[in-house]
Q: What sequence folds into this?
């Protein structure tokens, strides 16, 4: 992969061993320079360096998982850690197990869950294509990112055609098949799925009303929707929707939110 145009860009990257699918995830402020260090067997990634030496550089795929221009090191570390819960990263020997960063530590402008890499499969389990983020997958599908994330969380079939699952690696289908399946899905979603299934997802996430309480149990108010509750307490609606899609009640922004 030619990284010349990524020389001074910040973001998250990954190496995947094509032999055993083991992965290393890292962050950098200069993709080209960091790749040079890894490829030359330098840098603070001893397990990756050993594997490259053992298997050869040609046995590895290189991915740019997400671009984060202008980001700080702390912001990149948060997003980097978010991949450890989803990907099998044995080369990250310094990774903190499966510990996901605390939501209160996430940078304000990031919805960390949307930066998780995903694979799109047929209902029979054949891999169609993989993407570095949920956002990238939503662009390919022509479906809102919240909708895609909801189907990822619930393991449901999207449009009765695809499943969106955590990234598993492996080869994509031939380009012609990928384009054909994408076209079939876009046509289906435009004429049916986007109206009925999209509305069902929105309703299942949104709920009818939300009660907000302080952590000591004092009820602060009841709101007709997640959006209303989020805006009333200076929280991004998408962040609160994700929090409540995982469980209800749930803590977000230092308050307790409960779907009614």
A:
């Amino acid at each position: 992969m030619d990284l010349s145009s990524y020389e001074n860009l910040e973001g998250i990257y990954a190496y995947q061993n094509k032999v055993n699918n083991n992965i290393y995830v890292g962050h950098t402020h200069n993709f080209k320079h960091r790749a040079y260090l890894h490829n030359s067997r330098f840098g603070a990634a001893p397990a990756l360096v050993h594997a490259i030496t053992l298997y050869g550089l040609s046995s590895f795929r290189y991915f740019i998982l997400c671009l984060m221009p202008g980001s700080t090191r702390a912001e990149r570390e948060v997003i980097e850690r978010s991949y450890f819960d989803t990907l099998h990263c044995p080369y990250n020997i310094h990774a903190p197990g499966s510990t996901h960063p605390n939501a209160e530590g996430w940078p304000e402008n990031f919805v960390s869950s949307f930066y998780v890499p995903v694979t799109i499969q047929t209902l029979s389990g054949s891999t169609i294509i993989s993407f570095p983020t949920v956002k990238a997958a939503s662009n390919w599908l022509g479906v809102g990112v919240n909708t895609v994330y909801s189907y990822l969380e619930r393991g449901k079939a999207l449009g009765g055609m695809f499943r969106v699952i955590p990234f598993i690696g492996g080869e994509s289908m031939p380009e012609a098949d990928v384009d054909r399946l994408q076209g079939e899905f876009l046509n289906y979603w435009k004429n049916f799925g986007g109206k009925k299934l999209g509305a069902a997802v929105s309703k299942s996430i949104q709920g009818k009303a939300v009660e907000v309480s302080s952590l000591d149990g004092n009820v602060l108010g009841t709101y007709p929707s997640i959006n209303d509750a989020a805006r009333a307490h200076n929280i991004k609606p998408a962040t609160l929707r994700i929090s409540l899609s995982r469980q209800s009640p749930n803590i977000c922004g230092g308050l307790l939110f409960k779907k009614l």
Remarks:
- Helices lie at 31-39, 46-55, 73-82, 134-141, 145-154, 175-206, 226-232, 237-246.
